Request: fold
Amino acid sequence: MNKGKFYGVGVGPGDPRLLTLRAVEVLQSVDIVAIPKSRLDRESVAWEIAREHCRAETKLLELEMPMTSDQDVLLEAWRAGAEAVLSRLNQGLKVAFITIGDPSLYSTYSHLLQFLRPELAPEQIETVPGISAMSAAAARIHEPLALGDEPLLILPGTDNLERFLDLPNLVILKVSRTLPEVKASLEDSERKAVLFTRIGQTGEDIRTLDDLDPSGKIDYLSLLLVKMGGKQ
Reply:
């Protein structure tokens, strides 16, 4: 029997033109595209980005990956998703798991791979990197993420943000739930801070720190670039 192959494909931040050539090659060659969804009745941003690069006959495998901090729920979702993928791979099919941005950066793909790696030979796995949202955000305003010997810190949230305000370059992800606290922490610091929402997608929004209304609702797909150099 032919061995199946599992691909983790980064589809970039939002613009379908920002997929790599290798990502397009994979999407046009696989039998199945696996799509993570927070709920099965919701649309998938990753699929909206990738769909124009896929063949009409490509089958879809929707995997429910709930938005929760409950580790037991998450483990069960990852395990179930991996089992669904593995059953297709064992049929000799090629499966591409698509993910926004890069599959190696805070992606569900890495969690599935923990379950799949013991079941697959190394040659049955390929990870296809993608352009991250933070890279697209920096390019959008023509600012470097970091220069020279400067460090760059990526924070998956805002706990203890004050500890890191002396660093020259910060990327804050998952900022939508704690914007008031973030704004309060940054207001007295000499920092440039720019909020990016749905970068490269319909509804893209770019605002400086002074333009942010902490009481307003911020889309989940938002990040904040924070740099030394005075307020912007």
User: Anything to note?
Assistant: The chain has two domains: 5-131, 134-228. The first helix runs from residue 21 to 29.
